[in-house]
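Good morning C.,

I know you're traveling, so I'll keep this short. The sequence:
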Amino acid sequence: MPVKQKITEPDGVYFITFTCHQWKPLIELTDGYDLVYNWFDHLKIKGHYIAGYVIMPNHIHALIAFSDTGQSINTIIGNGKRFIAYEIINRVKKQKEVKLLHQLEISVKAKDRERGKRHEIWEDSFDWKECRTNSYMQQKLSYIHRNPCRGKWNLAPAPEDYIHSSAKFYATGEQGIYPVLNYCEPADINLTKPLQNDAESTPSTRPER
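The tokens, ready to paste straight into the viewer:
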């Protein structure tokens, strides 16, 4: 279940999950995996670190070391969700998925519609767990890496064979599609003083339409 409690700390390592509205496989339907990678790029530019992830057809798990950039972690994640949602809607429109687009439109709550929201892409909140120990991070990484091989999914014969995941890196030492930082390394990084490169381009955080 998603939690609505805000993260009050300005930095730290967090296990983050957010899920498509009604568990619809919107990431798979729009081939939106690259949108998540673009968001990861944006986070790196701002001084954050991706230590692990898996992108499933309808949800995302990530282990992220957030630096103190002066912006709350909840806002950072909210902006990421809006950016990905905006691009997912663009792709749904291009695919002329009229029925799906209508479903996403009528799912918007009245109060959100008044604020200009037009489509419901994500569940309202996101799940998070603060990771203070290496053993807890190992537990979360093991959980997310097994995700594609469990239950109904059967997306790969072994965790390291699923390409939209950091499992390959942790199993073999070889980076997969998206390079990650070993989960042990943030302990040696001063997350209160982020390294930024604002000169590089960043993805838009325009409101979802």
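Safe travels,
E.
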